[in-house]
Each structure stands twice: as structure tokens, then as C-alpha cells.
Write a structure and sequence with these properties.
This protein is mostly helical. It has 14 helices and no strands.
Amino acid sequence: MTRIPIILLVSASLLASGCGARDFGDLPEDPKERALLCTRAGVMLIGATPSNDKERFDRVSAKGRELANANGFYSLFPGSNEDPGKALGTEAAIQSAVGSHWATTINTCFKAYGIEEEPVPELPRESYERTVVCAAAIAYDNLGGREMDAESRIIYDPQAGYLLHKAAILAGGADKLTTANDDATTRLGQVMTAGTARAWAAECRKNDPKIDKATGALPTDDAAALTICDDVLSFAEEGGLAKGAKGSAPATRYAAAYRTVHARFSARPAPASEAIEAAIKAVAESGRLDQIGDQCIARFGN
């Protein structure tokens, strides 16, 4: 997680700049909510800037203080000049509130208050790298501010799980699925630091509709379908990345279905490597894991 130096937002002045006629875009209409959101985003920007890059660190720190003054943070939250953390919340609270989107939010705030915007990183262009970054961005954005389970894996998120099957095929085949998940986990830290998860997730979804809607049907052959379902349900039963996700109603439903499917799968001869390859490819061509899982439940029961 980005280290958040809240103290750097302490202002030398308690006077807020006049707002005048400003374009606040998608920012909250309520001045207090807007000031809190923008100031939190400013804190994230400062925290994500390497302190050994003194010129840039000093520049963004000054912009963060300027933004907090301009949006009226210090007057809207009395006492925040002495103790900014009392209004801003803990590092975890700030991360949950703006962590997935601070890089784009801060520029909306800067634009609204006439401050120069900061460059926003772009998605990688290379197919495999882009796919694992999309998986990480979507999984993180799907948390929606909930706390992440430290034991979770990117592949547990239904949309990200589809992308990792796709990444495995791009990397060379079914045996690359674990590598793809590990690579996405590494990229998760980068996505959290970049603050671009929401923007990247939207771009990823726009470029690949199967992230939101599975399109493939299970094969008519039971052995082939069970191989697919055993793979998909083993991940879907975890429910995602959030703490407590495994205990949710959908995850419990998929877990029950997995037990049924796995028993039938295990009663058959072990599938050949070609069958496993075909199963991973079928998922990579179909889309999100929970919707494939629903097909499995309809086919094999729970």
C-alpha cells in the first residue's frame, strides 16, 4: 500500500480560495464531501510520489496543499490544520475511499480549482501484460472499498479469473495459469500505487465485452464440460478478493456445486493434458467465471 504522509497537507493558511463558477464534473456537489474526496486524492498523490525524487515530491506536495486550501478543507473541517488525519481518516480509510481511482480523481479536482493536472499512466500495449494488468485493475476496483483478504488471489474474482485464463493462453497454454495469476498479483501493487484501477477497468471492459458477459456454451460432451466446470467452480467458490467473500451466498452456492461437480469429475479417468488445455481455452474464449459457473449448475446441479 502507498505510504500516506498526511502531515504534508498542513497549510500555512486557513483561508479557502473563492470558488466562483467552477466545473466540478463528477465530483460531489456537497462542498464538504468534495473537499474530503479531493484532499484524500491529494494525499494519495503525495504518498505515491517517491520522496527521493525531491523536485517532483516537493511540487506535488505544494499542489496538494494548494488544493486543500482551494477546496476549503481547512475551514470545512475545523481543527484539520493541526490534525489533518482527524478529518481524512486512517491510511486504510483513505485507501478504501479513493485508492482505485485517485489518479483520475485528483486531475478532476485540479481542473476544477485551476491547478495543473498530473500525467496519468496508460495501460500497457503488449497483449499479455495488458491482460494481467486488466485482471489486477478489475479485481481491485471490484472490491468497491471493501477490505481485501490477504489470502485472496486475483483469479478468485470472476471477471479477473476469465482474463487470467485468457492470459494463460497468450503465454503459451494451460500450464501458465498459475504464472498469470502470480503476475497479476504482482501488478496489483502497481495498480494500487498508480490509482488507476477504475479508469483502467473501464477501458478493459470497453475493449473486451466478455469481461462482463460470458458468451460460450458448455460442450455437449460431459467429460469436456466437467473439466471446464471443475476448473471454473474451484475459483468461483472463493467469492472474490474481499474479506468474508467466501461466506457470501453466491460463493456458498458455487462451493456446493463444486463438490458435486468435483465428485463426478474425480470418478472419471483423469483427463489428458489436451483436455485440460481445451478446457482453459474454452474459458478464455467464453468470459466471466460466475456466468460459466451458472451454466455448470444448470447442467450438473448443486
